[in-house]
């Protein structure tokens, strides 16, 4: 814990009160959270961020991270102070070029600018810091940043930003990003968006520069540092493709490349089904250090174990599906996680149909039959799983069954119209489950409350697999596991593991 002088903060607060006295403005501290019912401390109130410029130096030996993050924002109300979500040791803070006082505890960095801030005022917040991220723990003893054998990975969901840059850490406040990290020569740095080049420095270090020009959530902003083979190419649509493979992948390396190198092909397929790709670059990163896969915007990251049985394009379809469902259209609250995971899981069903390894109906039938009626699986509600079950298998599998139930109910034409108009309507924004239900009813012209109540909000196993009766398949006739489902199961095994 690092706490600045309380007396200094009191003086600054008093100055802010003086500024607003005698006016129509009622200034108060900005809220320390955005009101997410699952994670009340996530995000902050009183301002909206438009851009983060993250400029860092990282020494793999000792896991030493230092540098400056400059935040461009606008006050959304009259405030005397505001919070940033951040856990590393702060050296100084300036707000609009004036030194600001601050205090820091339990992941909340409380900033008190001189004179307070008026609604609509532009903000330039400069935070300088220096720490060892892997040594920084939250209240539960958890560290999201991981030191690896040759560098580090800053990747996680629902939180990672607080371990490497200060932010308004919630999907409802997206921004553009510049990420620039200097490392010793011979070390590579991966992040989101377009690669802007590598600059050699005079001290035997090199600076790696990345830029995301589309709105991006903080938890989807990542950095991977270490020894990587980097492959750059151009997708058929002209976008840059950057894929990176850790030099420690071992015998899984070729299978990983046989999967990730097909990223543009999978994106083309998904565009046909759910609408135009929303971002400016493509790619993927594979590392042995993650334990799961995550849909980092433009450049998902995959653990090498996904490829231990050979090529696995299902996990690629899942994480790229998130580029629409989760990245472009993000959750309004973390309770809305079905909008991310249910649809990304269903993209695996669609990909299975596309490559001829099992229809969506076959995969839905097998998934339904895989969980007996008395399984705890059926007690988790994908529409409201609870903070401790956000990444439960039911959110993925029962979530995908819900999507299939919608497809069966409205028919293919309306189903794909719903998906395409939804991703267009909510592009670069956030959404709730209730908004999606209303949208599906509007496009289909059908009442769908019963369907969604059954599959999202009612405990217990529904009486029948969605679509099974309509295609005349008896429950016991699905005895063979679809070819695709073996790899989909592996995908879920790893996706569900080690998430915080």
Description:
This protein is of the alpha+beta class and 500 residues long. The chain has two domains: 2-226, Sandwich (Immunoglobulin-like); 233-500, Neutral Protease, domain 2 (Orthogonal Bundle), CATH 1.10.390. It contains eleven helices and 23 strands. The protein has helices at 6-20, 253-260, 263-274, 313-321, 338-355, 360-369, 393-410, 412-425, 433-444, 449-456, 483-495, and strands spanning 2-3, 47-59, 64-75, 82-85, 90-95, 98-99, 101-105, 108-112, 122-131, 146-147, 152-154, 175-184, 188-190, 194-200, 205-216, 223-226, 228-234, 240-246, 282-287, 293-294, 301-303, 329-331, 429-431. It has an eight-stranded mixed sheet, with no helix packed on it. Helix 3 (263-274) crosses helix 4, helix 6 packs across helix 7 and helix 7 (393-410) runs antiparallel to helix 10 (449-456). The chain is globular. The model is unreliable at 1-23 and 472-479 (pLDDT under 50). Its EC number is 3.4.11.2. One of its GO terms (molecular function) is metallopeptidase activity. One of its GO terms (biological process) is proteolysis.
